[in-house]
Design brief:
The complex is a heterodimer of chains A (32) and B (725). Chain A has 32 residues and is mainly alpha-helical. Helices cover 91% and strands 0% of the residues of chain A. Chain A has one helix at 2-30. By secondary structure, chain B is an alpha+beta fold. Chain B is 52% helix and 19% strand. Classes of the chains: A mainly alpha (32), B alpha+beta (725). The interface between A and B is medium-sized, with 16 and 17 residues.
Amino acid sequence: MIAKSLVTLFGLVAIAWVNWYFLIAGRRRRDP
Amino acid sequence: MTEVVTIPVTGMTCAACSARVERTLGASPGVEAANVNLMTAEATVSFNPATTSAETLVATIRSTGYGAELPVADQSGESGQQHHAEDLRPRLAVSLVAAVLVMLLPMVIAPSGTQRFLLLGLTLPVIGWAGKAFFTRAWKAFRHHSADMNTLIAVGTGAAFGYSTVVTLKADWFTSHGIPPQVYFEAVVWIIALILLGNHLEARARGKASEAIRRLIGLRPEEVQVLRDGREVTVPLQTVQVGDEIVIRPGERVPVDGILLSGSSAVDESMLTGEPIPVEKAPGASVTGGTLNQLGTFHLEATRVGERTVLARIIRLVREAQGSKPPIQRLADRISAVFVPVVISIAIATFVIWFDIGPQPAYLHAMVAGVTVLIIACPCAMGLAVPTAVMVATGRGAGIGVLIKGGEVIELASKVDMVVLDKTGTVTEGRPRVVDVHGLEDSNRVLRLAASVEQGSEHPLAQAIVAAAGAAGLTLEAVQGFAASPGRGAHGKVGGRHVLVGNRQLLLDHGLQADPALAGADRPGTVVFVAIDDRLAGWLLITDPIKPNSAAAVRDLQSMGLEVVMITGDNQATAASVAAETGIERVFAEVLPEHKRDAVLRFQQEGHLVAMVGDGVNDAPALAQADVGIAMSGGSDVAIEAGGITLMQNDLTGVPRALRLTRRTLGIIRQNLFWAFIYNLVGIPIAAGILYPGFGLRLSPAMAAAAMAVSSISVITNSLRLRHA
């Protein structure tokens, strides 16, 4: 149960980070 | 001060790659515009030489993870592509051999530590060498906050490889926790092998698509026989200068554009015009480089060499066109940019869901499903959908005498609903001919005197009169005191008599009345009056004959659902007659050259998408105003520059042919995009395991790689169908 919760939490954080890194930070970097 | 440089770029495999190079170049200092063409593997950059240099730009491209080298003079556009294909071959061979071995190995050796170590040993060269480029490119993309298909491959195979390596090294730990020590090396090897295979096939198919250019380049002979100091010497094509006298023997290709000096022959121009019948050439005739001499030997004076020849211009047009992006491409580009982060998110979500609610061993299934999503989502097919079709279509066009300037032209031309034809030189020959001579007393005298006056004039009507006198075998006399009145005619003294040749207005100016009964006003054509010593002596009727194929072409266009309109500066009667003979329903006559453009604009305001067909300098503004300008190659350079499409054959049949090709191309592009979208739309959920609860169906990572390769190849194959359009 703890493992599942941790994986879910980790997954959500990872998804958020991927989208931030490539879409938001990436765009800011490309057209500042 | 702006300089433009074209840099060959290697290693780009999809739209996301070229978009990234383009973005990076566009953002670097001193760069004014950057355009990266995936198909020709070239970056065209305009930059300020004071701020940056070509070398810096090359370094900038390399920093994005792709190969770039300074352009070599006269490179043919295939070097980058070919290099890419050659570089791929040994890597593909190694990975294919490894793929077969990892498949056979489990049949020979039962699952054990030894088997797992052997599999690891077979996988290492594949992931470390054959597929290394995917990882380096993915890493460089990552550092630039961007992701492309390399990212998907690297993350997918990297995850499978990392997990399998841990299992191999620590099998006991897994067994003691009740997890079977399952490895996925064969998936890693197969994925890399299949993607390399796909890349290799793509490189080859692209090579085929650029065959059109290669074929055009191949029309130039490498060596030329030139007369220097009265002796015939063989020199390389590049050293031929304007003014050189070149000897061309039977069966040889004409190397440059020139004027025939001596000798005669028939020249096969089909490679440029599509016209199958060889054209007879006599001294004074112009001969185009790239055409094929048939039976005679002749000497040619070079008038245009190198980049200035017609052939070089065609090659340039085709190359520029093949690289340009139609507006529909922007859709594909926008999708690619957000696609990768979304796919990675789906892969993570897939992992989490399989882990939380999937069957045991949960994390094993979770990892396999996540990796499969990453693999199947590779957007190559989407990236290839538009450029392959544009490339094949422009190449095919060049083969049938239709030069298309670019992807945007293709898209617009396919949607055109009205074709506006200029009359002179387009529907008609553009070379007026005297069809009737009427003398009050002596017809031959009227023609002879009129031709004598006009022999020095450049006006097309004057030339028609002189030609008619020549054809009738009349001897012309010298003219004294020749004077031309623009828009009216000319007069001068011939044999002591004062001769007026011109229209009704010219007669009025000299106090003469043209009897309307004489004028034949109901007959189509231009009436030229001749007066001798201030007395009307007769008139000539001059018409511009309709080209033999015009009526058929108009019918063809109408059958395609297009409205055909003719605009002309000529009078109503002439225009109506030409329209009736060719089946054109809407005619606008007596339109001044400067108003042709306004007419096109009016049609556009009526809501039509207009293709304008013309040949003259005076058509250029209208050609540029139209949504698609179609220029006849027999016409002026200005018209060709202004047009989006150039017809190499000097008749109207090229128009329906060109419009059909563009319609077909847009159809293929739509199909390509549709299938590429559908593939991802269907493939990703299946890979994520959506069919598992209901049907127990899952994809393996290797199957995903195969599906991805198949979709890319099917898009390319679909585009190649245009070769026979």
